[in-house]
Each structure stands twice: as structure tokens, then as C-alpha cells.
Amino acid sequence: MRAPNRAVLGLAAVLGTVAVLAITHQAGMRAVWQEVTLVPVLWVGAALLLVLCQVACQAGRLWAILPRDVALSMARTAYAFTVGEWANIFTPARGGDALKIVLLNRVRGEAPFSLPKATGAILADKVVDFATLLVLAALSGAPSVIRAGARGHLPRAGVLVALAVGLVIVLAGVVWARPRTFERLTVIRRELRSGLSALTDSRRLLASIAFSVGAWVVEVLALGLLCSAVGFPLSPAHLVLALAVMNIGASIPVTPANLGVYEAALTFGLSSTGVALPAAVAVATLHHAIELVAINLAAAGSALWFVRAPRAFPMSNVH
What we know:
Blueprint: H1 3-24, H2 26-37, H3 41-64, H4 74-90, H5 95-105, H6 115-140, H7 142-149, H8 157-177, H9 184-195, H10 202-229, H11 236-249, H12 261-272, H13 277-308
């Protein structure tokens, strides 16, 4: 079955499930709606501004981790990032990440940005993003929350971690069991390694980490704002843990824009930290809606800027 067909079927299954729940659990759906209406419009606007800051920091993180010899401006990088994230809403298997690679490759100059090098830069960006989340989780005290969950509020946290580790092991097994699938990378490994070279450049790495920390901090603030609005203020450790659970759950796209999967994963993360189920569903739904609105606004803004003011996207090296 083609990936688009699977995505459509997945979305249909999610919508069907929501319809069934709305019919069979009308009291619960009303409770969720009541929680949504508790959130003031100004707070939603503040959360949207924070998420827009998150998108800006994410674009900055990608720009900072580009190799030294890449002639790409901050504005052009932001254009590629936001349009790629927008495409991820509609394309299966995160096809927007492939679009980012193509858009980053469309640069002229003395040091052209090849597709393998662009791929390496995107991978480096993912490495910084994931590593930053792990560090923030450790600094916020999330490990102690997980350990306490074995006796208290998070009885299933250990299972979740085990599943994540199991997924990594399975993926690694596929790589080793099917080496021919990755033989082509040996031909382009030099360019791919060049795209990853900023990971060994302390200056660029630190700049990228700074942007990444900013992105996660404002996302934590946005989620904390929504949780406080429904009467469940959470500690930074619980917020980081909930976001980590959401990112793990939504890492494998099943439906367009991860509809249903995103909400279910974040609801699980929030409810495991003590948030009442109706409030958790309301916050997860609002958070996802705000994220989608922010991505659309950022992509539309950068695309209009690129079309109407091409000189704002210089091709000279800005690093």
C-alpha cells in the first residue's frame, strides 16, 4: 500500500475513533470542551507567540549547524526550514525534511551545497535537537520523576522508555541486517560527512545548541502556560517529560500532521504526570492546533518574503 493511502486510512481511522468517542462518551467530550473554554484567548495568543519564537529558534539552530563553507543566509535557511515543516503537515513519512534538503541545495556560489551535504546538515540538526532534549530532561530532574513513577504517578514510564530503546535497537538491526540498503551511502559519504562537520566545530555547535535550548525552553513555557490555564501548573521536569513522550510518540508519522497521534501521545504524557484526563486532552489539542497555526504563519511569511524580496536572501557566505 502506498504511503499516501496509508496516511489517508490512518486519518480516517482517527476521525472515526473521535466520532465514536463523541457518541459513546458525550459526558467526557463535554468535559474536554469545558476545559478548552477555560483557556483565555489572551493566553492562547501568548502561547502562539511563544511557539512562533520556537520556530524561529529551530530555524536558527539549522542555520548555525550548517558547514562553514556553505554560502547560505539566515533568511534563506529559515525559508527552507519553515516551508519544509509546513510540507511535513501534509506529506507522509516526514517528506518535508526531504524538501528542506532540496531547498537548501538551491544555492549558487563558489561553494555549492550538494544534496548529500544538505542531508548531513539536516541530520546534524536532528542530533543537536535530540541531544538538547536529553540534556534538558536531565537538568530539569525528569529522571527522578521517572524513577518516582515506578511507585507513584508514572507506572508506565518505564515501559515507554523500554519501547523507545527497543525501537532504536530494531532500527539498528535493520541497518546491520540489510547492509545493501546503505551501500550507496559509501559513494557519497565524503559529502555527507562534510554536512555533519559542524558537529566538530565548537563555535557552530555551541551556537546551534543555544538556539536549540531556546526552542525547547519556549515550547516548555507554551505548554506550561496552557496547563496553568486549565488549573494544572506543572514543574519543568514534568513538562519536559510530557514533551519527550509526545516527541517519541509522534516520531513515526501515521496520519497527516500527526493528527490523533500527537494528541494521544501528549495526553498520555500529561495525564501520567497527574493532569486530569479531560484537561490533558484539552491541552494536547490546543497545543497541537497552536503548533500547526504557527508553522503555517511562519511558512507563509517566509515564502512571501522570499518571493517579494529576493535580495533579502543573499547567496554569500554569512558564517
